[in-house]
Request: fold
Amino acid sequence: MNEAYKKEKKRVVRDWFEERYRLREMIERNVTKKLIPKGLSWFGCMGGLAFVAFMLQVGTGIFLIFHYIPAVSEAFASVQFIRHAVPYGWLLQKVHAVTPHFMVSLVFAHMLRVLFQGIYKKPRELHWVSGASLLILTLTIAYTGTLLPASSVSYWGVSAVGSEVAMPTMVTDHSAGAYEGGETISNQTFVLIYALHIVGIPIMMTLFMGFHFLMIRRTGISEPL
Amino acid sequence: MVDYRKGRGKDELEPFFPNEILRHTLLTFFLISAVLVAVITFPESFQKATGEFSTFQTRPPWYLLPFYQLSFLVKSRGCYSTVLAVFALFFLAIPFLDRNPKRRLWKKPVFLSLVILSLSLVIILGLMRYLK
Reply:
């Protein structure tokens, strides 16, 4: 009796959702009953894996936002705090620092495959444009990320080596100027880089990714050569 | 959404679930495992910024090395930005520049040469910075 009541309750809830959102139909159409061309390469998964790496960065990045202080004098100490005082902070911070290597490699591999197999040909020209934009944005977000911990690598990112040559930066010209002559980077510049890293570039990447995935659904995945 | 069944027989198709989902799940598992291995094995490179850096730990990430090397070769900031912008524009415009109907890159010798030249340039720039 109790078991039958539970089953009935579940059915009522399922029907309630089904009536409104037709989830079963959507899942069948997009997952369980969907058919795709045979012989797709494992290398075709590189783009999807790059997306997984991006999500890994978003997840760990959200955690870091709660503890990181975007100020020149406190950034390094706040990262040290995350690494040594926050439970599992060392793990999340290191995952966030290491994953860009994988993400950039995967995006490169994906683009080389598309380039060598000519997948960007009609009608997929805009897939390439959005994908290439995503590569540029990935490099830019990785660059802004190296500046934020205010560590020795950050210094490399915006300064001249041995004070011999002025180092133009890729994103923020004035940040290089702030480091020249042994001066520290200004707080305003630091906050600007931080804002670009956590809001500006991720929003642009999300828009490009949405467009990229939408276009792939419209035109379909490319035929194996 | 594209219906892959159009114009294809049953033997030319496979189910998205579980085949494709399994491929992606397995590779995601390998990616996360590789990230965790890297977290444990990568050398500790987190040092406070001071004026003296010459050890390997202070080298920028490998994917930024070509840009750093280029910035040393092209000292003017305006020229550097222009070179990057022109390179990025060509990169973005590849589908519109390559009008050859053939798909495979190795069947298009001129375009293949340009791609190899560009890739070599990026690798050489990165190596120059790395070996410095």
In short: The CA atoms of residues 65 and 127 of chain B lie 8 Å apart. Chain B touches chain A through 66 residues (CB under 8 Å). Residues 55-131 of chain B form a domain with the Helix Hairpins fold (CATH 1.10.287). Strands of chain B lie at 13-15.
